[in-house]
Design a protein that fits this description.
Elements lengths: L1 H14 L7 E4 L5 E7 L2 E5 L7 H10 L4 E5 L10 H4 L7 E3 L21 E3 L24 E4 L26 E4 L17 E3 L13 E2 L12 E3 L7 E2 L12 E3 L11 H7 L7 E3 L11 E3 L1 H4 L9 E3 L5 E4 L13 E3 L9 H4 L9 E3 L35 H9 L26 E3 L6 E10 L9 E3 L4 E10 L6 E3 L7 E2 L11 E3 L6 H4 L16 E3 L21 E3 L20 E3 L10 H14 L4 E3 L5 E2 L5 H9 L11 E3 L5 E3 H7 L3 H33 L1 H16 L15 E6 L5 H14 L4 E2 L1 H4 L6 H10 L1 E8 L7 H16 L8 E5 L10 H9 L3 E2 L7 H13 L1
Parallel strand pairs: 3-4, 4-5, 5-6, 6-7, 7-8, 8-9, 9-11, 10-12, 11-13, 13-14, 14-16, 15-17, 16-18, 18-19, 19-20, 20-22, 21-23, 22-24, 23-25, 24-26, 26-27, 27-28, 28-29, 29-30, 31-32, 34-35, 34-36, 36-37, 37-38
Antiparallel strand pairs: 1-2, 2-3, 32-33
Helix pairs in contact: 13-16, 13-17, 16-17
Length: 874
């Protein structure tokens, strides 16, 4: 299509400044800036630099002969002569807007053979006065001409007032100028203008066309794009566009006085054009009562070539039933954003739009700022307009006939009640955009069957709504590729809702799914998404991810987990053989485990594409224990997004920026080795000190430790006699006699007979110890089952190992168990023992406790045995 070619060329001309490779100072006194746009072509920008146009052109001739684009706007040039522009004759684009230019001298552009674009907008040229402005002064090679802002709202319209005659410009394709309330003359019938803009929605333009009559654009037979947006239009008459046979794009938006009263006239006249796209957005005020779209408004569109229509921002609340049947067969795209749609039968009749591909219905119920109320005209209430029309397609027979040949399309009779509603999507529908519509729903175990089941839906955008909980099943969507419920306050979504087997892009960001992902039972949320390539879970308050959460995403290439609070990214990634892009920005990650790092490297090598990793705004640990990860980051810094924005943290809390990291990390291994030696030596020193301290304490407490050992051993593993357990009042023996075998004669001759004659029961090891039991166990048992332990202290006693053992066990028993019984140890000093041969334990005990001294004096004997008896029975 020729129009498409023109639009592509126009877009390239606009985009050229953005394709710059370098920028440098140039022009007179280097006040301007130059940019290389294409090989051998330079764009010079002198906008607002207070330069003289002649100096600029002379500089171009002398130094910058390959300048093709010159912007000299906003320099207050005023009027100029032919010589001023003489040296700029080779440029292809000239922008002279906002320069107070009121006239163009004859022949000023005579030698401009290469110029294609000329911008004279927002000057003081009286272009609508036939006697004051000569259009033929403009270069004949022009394809784009901009004359916005040369008509002032207070200008007087005289008898010579008319649109300028640009018939001379045979190659003109795009013409932009102010829209005034008059008709285009017959000279435009053979004009080359294909794109005509009269809009005032830009910063420079002015447009005031109250009425569009059949004569207004009658001569514009070759125009394909007509933009009369924001022109204060109030009425459009029946044949307004009838003669514009080449018209493909018509923009009537932002005419808030227009309303829907004229829409039937517009649709009627468009039957005679080649209309492809109609923009009828914002023709109604933002405030006031809602509107209704009637059959009569769109009826004649049935007989047009219309493919797309925009009705954004019109406060539409309802569409009359059967209206969908009146749109043309080839209709593909509807823009209906920023309205107030409520449920109606028109939704049940969506299937009647048999070739519909795209529905854009974002921002329903949008609130508008009250400040704009004063800037808008008085609300126009045209809901009481007649519903009748002469349109032949509105008859019952015609509507039934249309519905008959469209599969699953239902015609609803005018006055009959509808009882059977089976909503269906158009089979070819590919995308639905319903974002930011204040929908607040929770679907709990809900089953919604989408018809037809073999639908062609590829894009579903339901973001910026409120779906707190989504469970159940909606579908099928066999061809769905993109699905988003971003920023929808969602805290739960079931795997059944996501049973979209061919889905490739899932956007769940800016929700509250963190709590759900922390639960083990939700580890299969993505189990059906085996073809998913992009998963966005950013800003979901995620702290923990179940290990198998991504195990079914075999084809995923990108995972976005940014802006959460994840400390450990410890998930099973062994099945993610296509993962190349991982975004963990804005979390609390300290390090990335080896498995994840190796996976990214292996995938990159196998697929032949570079992997990317984003770890900005995390808590990456800069320490010896993390040095393997740090060296990995150093080796792959080109794959880290925003590497020079990264910050690392030492264990003491101080930070290291990326530049310091690059400078210091190569030396980290050597530092860690020295630290390792110091740590090992310190550890050995501490260990040695601990061993010494423990050894000293153990030696000092050796008898207590041995006592505890034997007590524990006897309690749990020792031999037990078949008698009742003893207690403080019921011991088996009155005394256990501890002595040296060298003193056995004293024991047998004196101790045993004298004490047993007094009714005491004694335990003597040669007589009472059980055979086959370890000696130490017999000793401990004798001490525990005897009320007292009597130590016969002699020189040989302190030399015997078992004697010392008996003394210390009795001492520990006395200290730990018999404190309330005044102890259990009785010392009998049988003979004088030198202190130097006494163990410290015995010497300490004698120094701090009373003992009984044996005497062979007959006079002292009775007192000795009396004291001994008392000590045992006490």
């Amino acid at each position: 299509m020729e129009l498409d070619t023109f639009l592509v060329v126009f877009a390239l001309l606009i985009a050229l400044p953005n394709l710059s490779m370098c920028c440098y100072k140039c022009g007179p006194d280097l006040k301007c800036s130059c940019t290389d746009i294409l090989p051998g072509m330079i764009a010079m920008d002198c906008k607002g630099r207070k330069v003289n146009i002649r100096q600029v052109c002379e500089t171009i001739a002398r130094i910058y002969s390959n300048v093709s684009d010159l912007n000299i706007a906003r320099n207050n040039i005023g009027n100029f002569n032919v010589e001023d522009l003489n040296h700029c004759r080779n440029i292809s684009s000239l922008n002279m807007n906002y320069n107070q230019i009121s006239s163009l001298p004859n022949g000023v552009f005579k030698d401009f053979q290469n110029i294609l674009t000329l911008d004279l907008s927002d000057n003081m040229l009286d272009i609508y006065n036939k006697t004051a402005f000569n259009p033929n002064v403009l270069p004949s090679t022009l394809t784009i001409l901009k004359l916005f802002g040369n008509f002032r709202e207070d200008s007087k319209l005289g008898k010579n007032f008319a649109y300028p005659d640009f018939t001379y410009l045979r190659y003109i394709g795009l013409l932009q100028m102010d829209g005034v309330d008059t008709a285009f003359g017959p000279q435009y019938k053979n004009s080359g203008v294909r794109n005509l803009t009269l809009s005032s929605k830009g910063p420079l333009g002015f447009c005031s066309i109250k009425d569009i009559f059949p004569t207004t654009f009658h001569s514009l037979e070759n125009v394909r794009v007509l933009d009369v947006s924001s022109c204060r239009i109030e009425n459009i008459y029946r044949d307004a566009f009838k003669n514009m046979k080449s018209l493909e794009i018509l923009d009537l938006s932002l005419n808030r006085r227009l309303g829907f009263s004229s829409l039937m006239n517009i649709s009627y006249s468009l039957q005679f054009t080649n209309i492809q796209f109609l923009n009828y957005s914002r023709v109604y005020t933002s405030f006031g009562t809602g509107t209704i779209l009637l059959n009569r408004d769109l009826c004649y569109l049935r007989n047009t070539s219309l493919k797309a229509m925009a009705i954004d921002g019109n406060k539409i609340q309802m569409i009359e039933k059967n209206t969908n049947l009146l749109l043309p067969k080839q209709f593909e795209t509807m823009y209906a954003q920023e309205n107030k749609f409520s449920f109606g039968l028109y939704l049940i009749q969506l299937a009647c739009l048999q070739n519909m591909l795209h529905i854009h219905a974002n921002n329903q119920n949008k609130m508008h700022s009250p400040i704009t109320y004063l800037a808008e005209p008085i609300p126009k209430d045209d809901n009481d307009r007649s519903r009748d029309s002469e349109c032949p397609f509105m008859t019952e027979e015609s509507l039934k006939s249309i519905a008959k040949y469209i599969p699953h399309c239902t015609y609803f009779p005018k006055n009959e009640t509808v009882t059977d509603m089976k909503p269906r999507f158009p089979k070819l529908l590919k995308s639905i955009y319903f974002s930011g519509c204040n929908m607040a729903y929770s679907l709990d175990n809900t089953q919604i069957n989408i018809k037809p089941s073999n639908n062609s839906l590829e894009v579903l955008d339901f973001s910026r709504n409120a779906y707190h909980s989504l469970s159940g099943k909606i579908g099928p969507f066999p061809n769905l590729k993109f699905f988003t419920i971003s920023r929808s306050y969602c805290s739960f979504i079931s795997s059944d809702i996501l049973s979209m087997e061919n889905l490739e892009n899932l956007q769940l960001d800016q929700n509250y799914l963190g709590g759900m992902f922390a639960q083990q039972e939700e580890a299969d949320t993505f189990e059906y998404l085996t073809h998913l390539k992009t998963l966005n879970l950013s800003t979901n308050r995620i702290t923990v991810l179940q290990k198998n959460i991504f195990s079914h995403l075999e084809n995923v290439e990108e995972i976005d987990l940014s802006c959460n609070n994840i400390e450990m990214f410890d998930v099973d990634v062994k099945t993610l053989n296509n993962l190349l892009h991982l975004n963990l920005r804005g979390n609390a990650v300290h390090k990335l485990n080896h498995v994840v790092r190796q996976l990214l490297e292996d995938n990159s090598e196998r697929i032949g594409k570079n992997f990317t990793l984003d770890l900005r705004n995390n808590s990456i640990e800069y320490s010896c224990t993390n040095q393997k990860f740090l060296y990995w980051l150093l080796d792959h810094k080109e794959r880290l997004r925003g590497f020079y924005e990264m910050v690392f943290f030492r264990l003491n809390g101080s930070s290291v920026d990326a530049n310091a990291f690059l400078r210091d990390v190569p030396h980290l291994r050597a530092q860690c080795r020295s630290y390792t030696v110091a740590i090992v030596l310190s550890a050995l020193g501490v260990l040695s000190a601990c061993v010494i301290i423990i050894g000293v304490i153990s030696y000092k407490k050796r008898w207590k430790l041995r006592y505890w050992y034997y007590m524990t051993k006897q309690n749990y593993f020792g031999y037990r006699r078949l008698v009742n357990d003893y207690n403080a009042e019921n011991y088996r023996y009155d005394a256990f006699i501890s002595y040296s075998d060298h003193d056995l004669h004293f024991i047998r001759g004196e101790i045993i007979p004298r004490l047993e004659d007094r009714g005491m029961k004694l335990c003597v090891h040669q007589r009472d110890f059980l055979p086959g039991i370890p000696i130490q166990d017999n000793i401990v048992d004798a001490i525990r089952t005897s009320k007292k332990t009597v130590v016969i202290l002699s020189k040989t006693f302190v030399m015997k190992q078992w004697c010392i053992f008996e003394f210390n066990m009795a001492r520990m028993e006395s200290i730990d168990k018999r404190v309330s019984e005044n102890g259990c140890l009785v010392i009998v000093l049988y003979e004088n023992v030198p202190a130097k041969i006494m163990p410290l334990e015995i010497l300490d005990w004698i120094d701090n406790h009373s003992y009984i001294s044996y005497t062979s004096d007959p006079d002292g004997q009775p007192l000795f045995w009396e004291n001994m008896t008392t000590a045992i029975k006490r």
